[in-house]
Amino acid sequence: MIHSTAKPLPSARKLAYQALYDILEKKAYANLTLQHVLKEYPLNGPESRLLTELVYGVLRKYNYLLWIISRLSTYSLKKIHPSVKILLCLGLYQLLYLSRIPASAAVNETVKIAKKITHKGNVGFINAVLRGYIRKKKELALFPRNDNPLLYDSLYWNEPEWLVKWWQSHYSREAASILEAFNETPKLAVRVNTLKTNRDALQKMMAEKGIKTEAVPWDNNALILLEGAHAFWPLAEEGLAYVQSLSSMIPAAILSPKEGDRVLDMCAAPGSKTTQMAEMMKNNGTIDAWDLYPHKISLIKNNAKKLGISIIHAGARDSGKPFPALFGRYDKVLLDAPCSGLGVLSHKPEIRWHRKEEDLKEFPPLQEKLLSCAASYVKEGGLLVYSTCTLNPAENEDRVRQFLKEHQEFTPLEFSLGDQKKSADGMMTILPYELQSDGFFIAKLLKK
Ligand SMILES: C[S@@+](CC[C@H](N)C(=O)[O-])C[C@H]1O[C@@H](n2cnc3c(N)ncnc32)[C@H](O)[C@@H]1O
């Protein structure tokens, strides 16, 4: 539904509150929630930037903001209603991190929203906590690390304690750099749609619109948007380029489908890699694109339509159930498996608060089943690429090693990203600080 222009649009702060409530309490995805809000309420540039900053900012600093609240409140956090906690986080985020917003505006605007959604007692409480912060901010510095190293690290890096411990035990040497990278705001990367334009032409077109871009040395079809990204969306609507993180462009580039190939994408929605492969194939050949959830199939179809692609046949299917009629029929198979998503904490910050340690156990058996099916679909001499957007040996290296033990008809193939990075045993783990992009894992396997 498009919002009627007769009514004034809600403020960025009010919309940020609603979005954060949906994300933190109903476990909605931040990027989809924001897309939906901005479609329904077409805010002007500064308001839409404030909305995005507030939502992502609060999500990144959530546990630190809660800790500040716990220091200022006479009630324990458990006793504070979720909507009050979110409003307090919004007010505090502005007071702590947005120096361009006067403190009085941060407090008054938060209280104004509170009056509309909660009772007088809560409004008074919110007002008192925010004003308390202004009075006492000098006393609220983080304690010395030695007092409680784990809590300190969790507050410093903005991740739950279990996850900080997890990085430190699984990636000991790299843990600090990984944690630091997840606190950086990621740069927007786009994939040039070579069916409609090329990188130089698009870069020129973007420059004319005031969008500053940078080419990626190891990928001819990727651009990083350095400035003016808000002017990019009309070009995306025209299908000239597609927003995709740099790391996520690697699996399809490694599978490297050619014109006329028959390709299977087993876990395809929303179709970022499916459409990338179709562009590489010059829209010539066939791609079967499966996903478990019927409602996600339209995402693949819509993306293909916008990008001018006609060779994708998307359908709902459980890829963990073998389909013998298609065994040995594909030149190339991509298994971009469902995973714990621990590589994408910088551009999907909500994952760190939603994910629980026990969730990690559910992925390896599913990935094992999917890999075993994937093996059957590849032709002799064909290629299989297995990828995940997580950093977890149990979902990555261990899965591939076990697969190779059980499927001696496959052998790993080495690959590289220009001069940037080389695989080992046909596998590559990309740490988030290496390409200033998501953490990813890719394995390239040849069926002998
Ligand atoms: C990492 S995402 C895929 C992203 C996609 N390849 C892209 O680049 O846009 C994993 C996908 O696997 C799907 N999925 C989960 N279990 C599945 C199953 N058993 N069969 C098919 N798809 C499944 C999820 O719905 C999700 O869309």
From TrEMBL:
Q: What is its main location?
A: cytoplasm
User: What is any one GO biological process for this UniProt entry?
Assistant: regulation of DNA-templated transcription
Alphabetical list of PROSITE patterns matching this protein: SAM_MT_RSMB_NOP
Q: Specify the SAM-dependent MTase RsmB/NOP-type domain's residue ranges.
A: 178-448
- The protein's name in its UniProt record: 16S rRNA (cytosine(967)-C(5))-methyltransferase
The family this protein is said to belong to: Belongs to the class I-like SAM-binding methyltransferase superfamily. RsmB/NOP family.
What highest taxon heads this organism's lineage?
A: Bacteria
EC class of this enzyme? transferase
What reaction gets catalysed by this protein? cytidine(967) in 16S rRNA + S-adenosyl-L-methionine = 5-methylcytidine(967) in 16S rRNA + S-adenosyl-L-homocysteine + H(+)
Binding of S-adenosyl-L-methionine: at which residues? 267-273, 291, 318, 336
What EC identifiers does the entry list?
Answer: 2.1.1.176
